[in-house]
Amino acid sequence: MDSTPTQAPSRPSAPRLPLLEEIDPESELGEILGNAMSIDGKPLNIFAMLGHHPKLLKRFNLMGGFLLNKGLLPAREREIVILRVGANAHAVYEFGQHTLIGRDSGLDDIEIASLAAADLAGHSWSADDTDLINLADELCNDDCVSDATFARLGQRWSSSELVELVICAGFYRLVSGFLNTMGVPLDDGVPSWPTS
Fold it and tell me: Which of 40, 89, 93, 111 has a 20 to 30 A CA-CA distance from 4?
């Protein structure tokens, strides 16, 4: 089963702005990138693109870092939401990066491939996981979680966690749109869409 999202819209085939490469480590941008995620000392491509606006990058990293490292949500459930948002946005960079993070958070490759598919029929998700997937789908389709989905989520999650779930989905929807629009290429070693 090919799990690539169906009817993917056209995306830029190359970066629309150059990825920033040789940056003075003593500069404001160099200091920000020095604390950002990197591969072999090179900042991830998303940060090399966001670096065109250092002050925004600094605040972006605060929000993203909070959601990934200091939030209330368990990592596995957070990654279900992020991966599903990335799939809905047809954002291969987002999906690829969070495939790696999702694996580290307890998702297996079958679950990850299922999240990329438009039709979830190939995998049996628990009711709790299905609610998270529905949250992501409904926010991406209509910018609002339905009453039914929100009520089911409210049976499991606290008020603070519900706020974080919606903000997490919205933040990664913003990230996906940025990545798609700017044509940010995959980093070395990051997978593309799953093929099975």
Answer: 40
* Torsion on CA atoms 143, 147, 149, 154, rounded to nearest 10: 110
180: amino acid identity, one letter:
N
Average pLDDT on 174-190 reads 97
Asked if 109 and 39 sit in the same domain, the reply is: no
Higher pLDDT, 34 or 127: 127
* Single-letter code of the amino acid located at 33: L
* Distance between CA atoms of residues 36 and 126, nearest Å: 35
43 bridge partner residues: 38
- As for how many domains the chain has, the answer is 2
The mean pLDDT of 155-166, rounded to a whole number, is 98
Band of residue 196 on the pLDDT scale cut at 50, 70, 90: low
Q: Which of 45, 79, 10, 75 is closest to 185 using CA atoms?
A: 45
The Cα–Cα gap between 111 and 64 comes to: 23
- Do 114 and 36 lie in one domain? The reply is no
Choosing from 68, 88, 123, the residue where a domain stops is 68
Exposure string over 19-54, b if 16+ CB within 10 A, otherwise e:
bbeebeeeeebeebbeebeeeeeebbbbbbbbbeeb
Q: Are residues 97 and 150 in the same domain?
A: yes
Supply angle C-alpha 132, 143, 128, rounded to 5.
Answer: 10
